[in-house]
Amino acid sequence: MLKIKNLKAGIEDNQILKGINLEVNAGEVHAIMGPNGSGKSTLASVIAGKEEYEVVEGNIDFEDDDILELSPEERAQKGVFLSFQYPVEIPGISVSNFIKTSISEQRKATGMKPMSTKDLLKMMRDKMELLNIKSGYLSRNMNEGFSGGEKKRNEVFQMAMLNPKLSILDETDSGLDIDALRIVANGVNKLKNKNNATIVITHYQRLLDYIVPDFVHVLHNGRIIKSGGKELALELEEKGYDWITKEADKKWD
Amino acid sequence: MGLIENLKSYSEEIQISDDKKDLLDSFLSNGFPTTKDEEWKYTSLKKVIANEYNIENKGQVVDDSVIEKYSLGFENQIILSDGKLINIPTIKGVSISGFSEFESNTNDSILNLNKSLSQNGFTVSIDKNTVVESPIEILFISTTESNFSQYRNRISIAENAEVKFVERIQNLNNSSSFVNNFTRINCDKNTKIEYNKIQNNTSESQLIDTVNVYQEQDSTCDINTLLFGGSFTRNNLNFEQNGFNCESNMNGVSVLDNNQLADNHTFVDHKSAHCRSNEMYKGIYLDNSRGVFNGKIMVRPDAQKIDAFQSNNNLLLSENSSIDSKPQLEIYADDVKCSHGCTIGQLDADALFYMRSRGIGVEEAKAVLTYAFASEAIENISVDQVRLLSKKLLAQKLNVELDFSV
To answer: For chain B, which residues make up each domain, given as ranges?
Structure first.
């Protein structure tokens, strides 16, 4: 589904990603771990198409199409979804209006018929039930005054409504207490199926107790320095990052 | 030639009283205000008055399809075509007639011009204890080319009455018309009024609009100004609070493009204690458009326990647009709560990326954020049709097909 080859990208003169290779197939969950500043969020933003990052080399193929030249909205319309580390507050737009606009624009772009308000509301109700979200939340302004947990749950709700092929969860666990974490993780698990894929970006192993990855990659200084199964995450939890980063630093310096 | 010359020759053709003649002579000798005048510092009338105008020309009869096109379809309609009253609704407890003579403050030259030569307008009186359920729609239609028209309107609301208005001034051709519209609103004790102005005239239209509101004890008056059209618009909105527990609310949304200019001048004169005023003006400027906001709040020495709030937020969506914003607070009482805030900014880049990452196209995302910016003021309007129209016109101005109405 997603093939990243030798991706080098940065912001202005600062190169952050120094040759990323990653392949994600349908039905898989990949965790990308790494210390602060390793380039995890940059990778997420570059896949989603944030324009301030400049890709200097390499490619990103999504379902065999090169998506690097596509705008963020075109990537989303193809089925890429980014759950933000810091979801943006948008006063003046209700959650329901935001999601309605998002769905109708995506359907318009992909040549689908608009969804009736009735069907849309039903879908919202179903997904809210699935994710354990209380009603009343739909009429609140987008992320405005939301707690950390509410913001992340709102991201997962959008994910449920948009039904993406590839979901990238950027530090979904940051700022969450254990109960909120469990709710969000359960939501992600419920949305998982054999046709979609998930990339979980996280600093800590904690989230991976709830969203169990098939593959774990360690990102350090803009490169994936180690990949393995879910046991790698546990090893990192126990030993920290130092034992592999030091080795990698020797290799690349 | 120009408007001053046009007015001179017009005044020679018509019969007016000596008082009016004096007023006009003094206006003509001083001329229109210039940018040297503090109240007109950022807005020049030079180009507007350099044009040639027909003064108060009477044109063709308008048919129902025109009215249908520009009205919001309320059952109560006051319609003036080239100044002539062509429709008056019958409403229980409400008397409506055409132009009437009444006083206005004489230190405003634009109002003096209005008083000296105006012969058109409407007069509405609402009886005591009358609650008018359906809004009264007022439509001023101008059919002739390059017309200079003046309207002088008076609304009097007697004790305990409630009423809502929706007003629209519409030119039927693309010439440079110029309207000088003045409305005086008297709110007696315990009255409630909402007055909505839809300013969406043709692209070459020019307007100076003045509303003077006089409020008595326990009255609430809301004036909502929705400015989308016209090349030149100057709004003067003045409130005078003359009794305890008055509330004056102002909501303004201006969405301008091309070379449009809009100047919103507001003045709240808190003359009495225990009163409130709330003011929220949102400006959205595209292309080469220009905005001016001047919000004056005066709290007189005996007007204690005043709660006055003013905000003016502006969104500059192009590098060539501009806004001059000036809050002006004069407070002579010591136990009052006054706050004001002014912001000028662009759309939030993070919010734009957030929306685009959800599949919303860049123009649509900008439009949604712009709507979100304006919505706070739009949502304060109680008349559904006006709110809906505002949303529709906003989407039109931003050139997107979006429905903001959920």
So the answer is: 3-397
Contacts of B362 in chain A (CB under 8 A): 71, 73
B350/A71 Cβ within 8 A = no
pLDDT tens per residue, range A122-148: 999 999 998 888 878 898 999 999 999
Q: Any idea how long chain B is?
A: 406
Q: How many C-beta atoms lie closer than 10 Å to residue B330's C-beta?
A: 12
How far is it, in rounded angstroms, from Cα B273 to Cα B360? 50
* Pairwise CB contact (< 8 Å): B364 & A48: no
Interface test mutation site (partner B, options A46, A73, A143, max chain B beta carbons within 10 A) = A73
Give the model's confidence band at A176: pLDDT under 50 very low, under 70 low, under 90 confident, else very high: confident
**CA-to-CA distance for B252 and B280, rounded, in angstroms?**
6
- What are the pLDDT digits (tens) for B346-369? 999 999 999 999 999 999 999 999
Domain ranges of chain A: 2-252
CATH class of A2-252: alpha beta
Identify the CA nearest to B6 among candidates B55, B50, B46.
B55
Say whether A93 and B402 touch across the interface (CB within 8 A): no
Whether B356 and A97 lie within 8 Å, measured CB to CB: no
Q: Are B240 and B212 in contact (CB under 8 A)?
A: yes
Number of H helices, E strands in chain B: 8, 20
Instruction: Residue A88: list chain B partners with CB under 8 A.
Output: 348, 350-351, 354
Edge-first strand listing for the sheet containing B220-227: B84-87, B76-81, B136-142, B162-171, B192-199, B220-227, B247-256, B276-285, B307-316, B337-345
Q: Which of A50-59, B55-64, B157-166, B381-390 has the lowest mean pLDDT?
A: B55-64
pLDDT digits (tens, 9 = 90+) for A192-220: 999 999 999 998 888 999 999 999 999 99
